[in-house]
Amino acid sequence: MPTICMFFGIIIRMYTGTAEHAPPHIHAYYQEHEATFAIRDIALVDGSLPPRARRLVEAWMEIHREELLADWTLAQSGEQPFKIQPLE
What we know:
The protein has one domain. It is 28% helix and 31% strand. The chain contains two helices and five strands; from the N terminus they run βββββαα. A five-stranded antiparallel β-sheet has the order 1-2-3-4-5, covered by helices on one side. A hairpin with a 2-residue loop joins strand 3 (25-30) and strand 4 (33-38). The protein is globular.
C-alpha cells in the first residue's frame, strides 16, 4: 500500500490494483490509530483518529480531493499513485 503523503506525523496510504476495493477512500495512520475516509464526501468510514489528527486529514482531503480521485483511478488500474503535497 503506497504512501501518498505524510504530514504532522500522519501517514496517508492508498491500496493499489484492486478494482473491487471501492468506494474511493484513503487510509490514515497516526501513532497507534488507523482510520479509513471516503474521498468523495470526506467521511470517516472506519476506525478512529484523535480529534486534531482527524481535522487535519479532513482539511487536507478537502484541499486535494481532485488529486485523490485521480490517484484512486491510477491505483485501481494497478498503477502507482502520485505523491500529494502535505499540509504545511
